Structures are given as C-alpha cells and as structure tokens.
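The aim of this short unit is practical: by the end, you should be able to scan a pair of folded records and say something sensible about each. We start with the first protein, listed as its amino acid sequence and then its structure tokens.
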Amino acid sequence: MDFSGVTTYPISTRKNKMNVQDDFAQPVRAGMTVSELLAAMPNQLGSQSLNRVIDAVVAARKKGKPVVMAMGGHVIKCGLQPVLKALIEADVITAVALNGAGSIHDFEIALIGATSEDVGAALHAGNFGMAEETGGEINAALKSGVAAGLGHGEALGRMILERKLPFREQSLMAACVEKGIPVTVHVAIGTDITHQHPSADGAVLGAASFTDFRIFTSVVSELGDGGVYLNIGSAVLLPEVFLKALSIAQNLGYHVDHFTTANFDMQQHYRPLTNVVKRPTSGKSRGYTVTGHHEIMIPLLAAGILDKI
C-alpha cells in the first residue's frame, strides 16, 4: 500500500482527554493533609473517581441524604471496623448492609478478638466452620431476635452489647445498634458456616434476613435526590439484593434518581458493575468504580471524607 495519499490535520484542532493545566498531578511534599494529597492527585481515572465519590458523600450528608455502605466479609476481616466506626460516629454512614460472612467475622472479633480460620487445614478433617460458639451463639441470638421482631443485623448487634462481649468495641454491628442506624444482614442459605450447625433453623434464618431485606428496601427508597450507595467487596450477593430493593422501591412509587453509586473492590466484577454502577444510574445518577485493596482504599476514602466535613 502506498502511504503517500494519507491525510493529516493540525494537532491544535484535536480534542484531548488530558492536559497539563487541568489533569496533571501536583507536587507531593512532606506534611501534606489528606485533602491536600487527594487534591494533588491527577484528575484522571481512579483518583478522579475517588475524589468524586468523596465529594458526593460530603454533599449527601450536608443535604441530609443517606450514605449506605454495603460490605462483603473480606472488608470486615481486614480489620477496618475502627475506620468504619469513625464514619458512623461522625454521622457520615447512615446505614450498613452485610452479607452473612461479614456478620460472622464481626461477631467472632467481638467474642475473641480474632477471626478467619485456616480453611484448607480444617476442611479435610471435617472441622471447617464447626467452632461451637460461632454457630451456637449466633443461631441462638437470631432465634431470640426473630421472636422479638428483630432483623438479623440488629439481633446480633444487640446480643454483642447485652452480653458485653470482650471485644465489643470493635464490632461494627454493635456500633450501628448503639448509634441507632440500620444494620442489615442478607444471607443465602448454605453459604455461611453457621448454617452447618445443628442449631441452624432455616425458618429463623429466612425470617431474620427477610426482615432485614424490608428494612434495607426502606433505606434504598430514600436514596433519591442526593444519596450515596457504596458497594465494597461484595461481588454477587449484595449487588443482587440492592437491585431487587431498588426495583421494589420504584414499584411502590419512590422515584429513586439523582443519586450516586460506587463499587470499591480489588477487581471489578460483572454484577457490581451492572447492578450497582450502571443499571441503577441510567437516569440522572452517577456511578463510579474504584479499584484497589480495601485495607488501603477505605481508610483513604474515610480520611478524605472526614477532612472535608
């Protein structure tokens, strides 16, 4: 092929996605505040998304709108409860949603100050997930909670406080109960170690989690006009729960639009991208993705929010 006929154009006429004036990082120096560090990051890609999520959270709370944080179990067993509690105590997080694993890790931390067993070492011996206290005490608390009309999250949070478990100050569920904000737990039967125990009762599990689904749907119904929904480290279960809750809220006449969603995870998966970031924000809302390790990104997110408020 003869390239002599190829046409060109002046670079001055081209539209560019990045320029020095608006998008470059600023110099980093010793002693910077978190806000200064975040402002110094390039106005591009992940750092741009992180800063926009921080701004959305700050704006939501100034407007009195909800900021909901939904988390998978890995977030809890990374030891991030003190960071999350700081956001709860500052009235930033207004509702928390967990999967079953998250509630189990949170309970074990409150009970013994440790969690996350070595699955490989215990599985073939038939001991994986069989710690007596974990299954027995959680299932007993749920049975009592359901009888009192409580959901899964509140039942466990109250039990941790009432029994004065040794490390209750590190419990996220207990912190939510103390603060009076919703903490919901959404289980899929057979996915959690507490379902393996002889004390497990499918009717109790279903009733506790269904109560929490109704509470969660109520929370989601209030996201419109400025709220923020954050999905952190749940690749399947909580994105599906969120989509169904949003559908019910819309069906019942709550027009949930003009809100912000974000998915924080170590890698981006199909369901969070589809059910949290894209589909719910197809109107006039905005969805963001922030990729990175929870133990790095969540403290940075929290510090950025607390600095700005």
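Turning to the second protein, read its sequence before its tokens, just as you did above.
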Amino acid sequence: MIDQETVNSLFDMTYGLYVVSAADGGKLNGQLTNTVFQVTAEPPRMAVAIHKNNHTHSLIAASRAYSVCTLAEGTPMTVIGLWGFRSGRDLNKFAKVRHEAGVTGSPLVLDNTISCFEVNVKQTVDVGTHTLFIGDIVKGKLLAQGKPLTYDYYYHVMKGKTPRNATTFKPPEQTAGKTEQK
C-alpha cells in the first residue's frame, strides 16, 4: 500500500476528459475517460486505459478499433453523467446523441466535442484492473473551436465526482481528513 502523500500527489497530474467509443456487430457504446495519450509521433499512435469490467472494453477488444472525442470545457454535467456514470449495458447512450460512424466503424460523438480521433488497435497491455489499448491513429477530425475539458476543471470548478472504474478514482478512505469536492 502506498502512503497518503503519494496518493495525494497523483491528483496533481493533469488529464483531459474524453469520450472513448467503439462498435461491434451493430452494438455501440462509449464511456468517459481521462487516460488518453499520444505515445508516438511517427507513426502517430495513441493509447487509452479502459477498465476491464466496462462494456466499452469488450467492444474495443472485439472490434480492435476505437474513437476518442475531446470534450469541450462547457460540456454540461448531464452529458458527463451519461458517458461517465451510466452503463451501456443498461441503455443506448447514443440514442439521443448526434454521432456518425467513422472510417473504423467506431462512433464519433458530435455534441460537446472539439475533436475526434480514430484508432486501430495494434497492441494491448494488461495493467491490472485496466487494459491499455495502443493503436495507430487513422483519422483525426476538428469539430469546433474551444478549450478542452480537463479533469482538474471538472473536479475543482464543476465539482464533479469520479466513477469507481476510473483510473483516478479516490476511495473515501483515501480522502479522510480532506474536504470532498462534489
């Protein structure tokens, strides 16, 4: 077990907030994540960390492709709630969301996003509770001007919470003695 100072230090790392989506056999799903990063410039490669229990994980594993859509800073909490706190096993998250199929077949979320990327998976790495899906960026798309929504802005300004399956989940026992941001 790591000490509390180390745990608290991890929350100084900066992240964006993204909708990662995939499609397989006509099934679409997407989820909110903050663990997305470009890993190489040539060829352009991207990686995402997805919790193994999430429905999106099974779709990415089956289709070997995913999309990443960068959320805009003005994204409403209702949108974040849809992507981050609801399961695609229980509802069709895309039913009332403008989207289109990308070249990989993965859905691109068009509402509240400033850019999207499509990725073909080349490698997976088991990192415990999550899988790191690493792949080639096959297409990028600019949708709007604006500032990307960061996790820091979401957590401190919007007073957002973090779902249990997130890479940055902070269990209540690790926040003892601290004022919880909601």
